[in-house]
Amino acid sequence: MVHDTRRKKIGAHALLIIGSLIMIMPFLWMVSTSFKSFAESMQVPPTIFPKEFKFQNYLEVFEKINFAQYYLNTMIITASRTAFQLILCSLAAYAFARLRFPGKNIIFITILSVLMVPSQVIMIPSFVIMRELGWIDTFYAIIVPGIFSAFGTFLLRQFFMAIPKELDEAAKIDGCSFFGIYWRIILPLSKPALVSLAIFTILASWNDFLWPLIVTNSDEMRVLSIGIATFQGQYATDYPLLMAGALMATAPMIIIFLFLQKYFIEGIALSGVKG
User: Fold this and answer.
1) Which residue ranges does the record assign to the ABC transmembrane type-1 domain (predicted)?
2) Is the pLDDT of residue 167 over 70?
3) DSSP 182
């Protein structure tokens, strides 16, 4: 019996190791290619490790495109979207989870129905609105449409509903207002869910390509995803520079996830406990 259990554990760990290697191979290939020369990156059969590490590929990325400006633009857009989503989605989720008002369930179902609509469907109407407002080629056009999320509202509402309502009643006895309960009780207890929403929003904003491409015209307003795509041409692609730029763009996301993965996993695990 003990041997069977040990064999099952060994088999499970072996499958997990194989799966991990399969998942991490594209990333390792990206790192390897970023240090190769263009000729070596096109070599057949391909080489796993570069014969000579070309660290200047990373410097050439900054020389070929306005990479620093793209990085700054992406950071501004990501930080703004994340901050607004945490504020607006948490306020909406608190209202749906704790307050009573006419039509609450109907409004919530209507918001959830937005999740069933592909983002591509609303791009043309959104573009027309941005054009009428005179926001084309500005940060407003990129940031404002992404400051609220139906998914974020749903995620936080589910988490807020798992918080005991007795805490609200105790706070009301002490003279706490609805906003005071939200600020002093709900938010401090909801750190895992807030971190989870922040990670989802950061990833979506950092990797956003199509919407910034549509609403921006000038090179000064471009973001990382668009800038990196310029290394991919119609007849030839500079793979070493493409991979070097992609690696520098990916690094912040990896660091953020490594530091916040504890809260992220906890938030996902607890957000569906009650509802």
Assistant:
1) 71-260
2) yes
3) I
Residue indicated by tokens 């591509």 = 120
pLDDT of residue 266: 65
Q: What pTM does this model have?
A: 0.85
Q: Which domain holds residue 259?
A: 56-270
| Whole-number Å distance between alpha carbons of 129 and 20 | 45
Q: Is 38 within a domain?
A: no
Residue 37 in domain:
no
Name every residue whose Cβ is closer than 8 Å to that of residue 104 and which is 6 or more positions away in sequence: 95, 96
pLDDT in tens, 93-137: 999 999 999 999 999 999 989 888 888 889 999 999 999 999 999
Contact 211, 142 (CB under 8 A): yes
> Where residue 200 sits, what CATH number does that domain have?
1.10.3720.10
pLDDT digits (tens, 9 = 90+) for 192-234: 889 889 989 999 999 999 999 999 999 999 999 999 988 877 6
pLDDT at 268 over 70: no
Alpha helices by DSSP H, listed for the chain, are 2-34, 38-41, 56-64, 67-98, 104-113, 123-133, 139-143, 150-161, 166-173, 178-181, 187-189, 191-206, 210-215, 224-229, 239-270
Give the residues across from 232 on adjacent strands.
237
Domain count, the chain: 1
Q: Supply the pLDDT for residue 270.
A: 56
Q: Report if residue 197 sits inside a domain.
A: yes
Total residues belonging to the chain? 275
Measured CA distances, 170 to 176, 182, 232, 248 (Å): 9, 13, 60, 49
In a domain, 21, yes or no: no
